[in-house]
Amino acid sequence: MLGKYRSARSLKEHIGQLIEVDDLDRALKLIHDFVEIIFTEPLCTSQVFGSKELDHLCQCIGKANFETIKQENADAGYSQHSRPVFAYVVTKLQKTGGHNRVIEAFIKARPEAQHVILSTELAGQSDTDFLINGLAKQASIVLELAPTGNYQQRLNWLQKRLLEIYPKKVYLFNHHQDSVAAAAIQPSMGLDGSFYHHGDHHLCLGVYLSHLEHIDSHPMGYHNCRDALGIENIYVPLTINDRGERTADLPFLQSGRLTTCTAARSNKIEIPYFVSYLDFVPKLLKVTGGTHVHIGRLTPWALFRIRRGLKRLGVQPEQFVYTPWVPSVWTSLHDYRVDLYIASFPYGGGLTLIEAMGAGIPVALHKHIFSRVLSGIDLAYSGAFSWRQPEALLAYCASITADELAEAGKSGREQFERFHAVEHFHRFMNDDKQGGLVPARVHGHFSVEGDEWALWMARQVSFRRVLYRAAYTAFRKFRARWL
Fold this sequence. Notes:
Distance between the termini: 18 Å
CATH topology of the largest domain: Rossmann fold
Number of domains: 3
Number of strands: 13
Shape: globular
């Protein structure tokens, strides 16, 4: 359907025509599908973050739809609440993913309030048990899923529910392509709303919704949105419950060999890049003679490549420990007696990095060849080891001492206590003067090495993106059958 449009401009013109003839469902779907094409294009990663035009079109669709809803519900009144109500608009709840844990933090910060989660279900069916069953004992939570239907029917439901609930505050936690969520909250509703920018590696709808407070959760995103995109935003640091620092009975290099760990799903590491995590792990184990723990689901092909590499280098298979999911990365780092956390690459993960620092585990971070956002280095403690060439990381792992690991682990723990402890988040969420915190650029200039890297990436991406796009398109068509 999108192939007939010669440019984004022609697509926008057509969507405008659809709005004029009140074909809002098709307009929403075209925006949704267009954003999927952009954020699944590797060359756009950490290059295209938002679109004023697409956000404006979503708002035009939402406005047209809301006019009809107002007329149909002219006599309806707002709900009367005995306690404050906070609403969270999501695309999908899933077992893994950092934004679900952020929602948990928002809810826990206000245990006395009523919390309503409204899911558009545009990315498939939510996995609700892990969130609701865990938090229901600590806070009052209602989860509502959009009824099965087309895009406009889901928008009708969402706008009606927001009017009926009329929360004290509504937070937008949408996936990148969720045109329904980006269209729903209208200025004329009079709602106090915030857009939480968690889809920050790619084009995400909602970035330029000026009537919503824009929240960034890490220094890289904050400065990128403010300086590069010209957005008035606020900084709300990522936080996580303190599960305890590394104790004296967990000395570093206890076995005499280095135990490393990386926590990430396939979407962060199975990406075309000049250094492959899948090829690096066997080399790491060959150099250290130790153990590497991977937490997070990988594809069968990825596991095959790692194990094939182990065999070729003569590394024992038990040196690579794979677990698709754990309840807590923090606890697992202690359970596995991890000495060094190697942050995922080419895409870093913010919450897992914070868990590692809180657990008192030293970290090693990759300096991405063109993106500060993808690296995550600004989240780490001053002096944290960072690398660009894999040989540098291999040399570091081969030579690091227990004393050096202990000192780095202490610095990470101090970084956690200073910026990412839950107490700071609770204080911020209950402060009427939010928005005063400005993150520092603690790691200075971020250089990009030579044109040869860009040329190499272009060749690699162009070679693989056809297969990647075909696979994703097939997945999207399969998923659409069940919506």
